[in-house]
Write a structure and sequence with these properties.
224 residues; alpha/beta; five-stranded mixed sheet; elongated
Length: 224
């Protein structure tokens, strides 16, 4: 029916339209958009309708949008949650960043906690996330709860901590810069993150002043 309705506009030589075939079932929605993309060149607006409460709706939206956007299907997206609009926007932006369709901002990498964890990883990750909320630079921070996997993950990040025995090794760009008491881990990570962010912003300004091109991400997909 979507193509039939589009044909009504085409009869009047009007083609400045966008098509949406939203559905509340991600599987049905994916199939509908896949078929539609194969039969027309109109821009497509993706959406999972009545997705549900925040957790359930986020999962549904991530599955559906990820399957389609990774195949190049979709031009705009709309996340529908039984949650405040600001939360819908956050989810949409995170989905785009996860697919590298939008320049990544802050990314927290943290372990799920296991028998080797010697620190409350859940609390630590939450406190670091809250302390860095609003940071716009593409910064990857690793919060790890042991000295087994911790150092490896921390070295892969811009900034990280490997915790254990009541203290934390702080890594910056893969190098250990200091060891701090467990009580100082969050404070230290936030301080170091701010330093790195300031340097990244300064480097970007210097690049713009010299005429060097800057990366701004892919603009093909937007959140509406």
């Amino acid at each position: 029916s979507a193509l039939w309705e589009a044909s009504l506009f085409e009869e009047h030589d009007f083609r400045d339209i966008k098509i949406s075939v939203k559905h509340n079932d991600p599987v049905v929605m994916i199939e509908a958009y896949t078929q539609l993309a194969a039969q027309c060149d109109y821009p497509l607006h993706l959406g999972v309708t009545e997705a549900g409460p925040a957790f359930q709706g986020t999962i549904k939206s991530a599955v559906a949008f990820g399957a389609l956007l990774s195949q190049g299907i979709g031009d705009t997206i709309r996340v529908s949650l039984s949650a405040p609009p600001a939360e819908e926007v956050k989810v949409g932006l995170q989905i785009l960043e996860s697919l590298n369709l939008k320049q990544r901002r802050l990314e927290i990498v943290s372990c799920p906690s296991c028998g080797r964890a010697q620190v409350d990883v859940y609390k630590l990750a939450d406190e670091v996330t809250a302390g860095l909320e609003g940071m716009e630079v593409p910064l990857r921070v690793a919060v790890m709860g042991c000295v087994v996997n911790g150092p490896g993950e921390a070295r892969e990040a811009d900034l990280g901590v490997a915790s254990g025995n009541g203290k934390g090794q702080i890594f910056v760009k893969g190098e250990v810069i200091k060891t701090v008491p467990e009580s100082k881990i969050v404070e230290t990570l936030i301080e170091e993150a701010m330093k790195i962010a300031e340097q990244m912003e300064q480097d970007e300004q210097d690049g713009a002043a010299s005429g060097a091109p800057t990366v701004t991400g892919k603009p093909e997909v937007t959140v509406s």
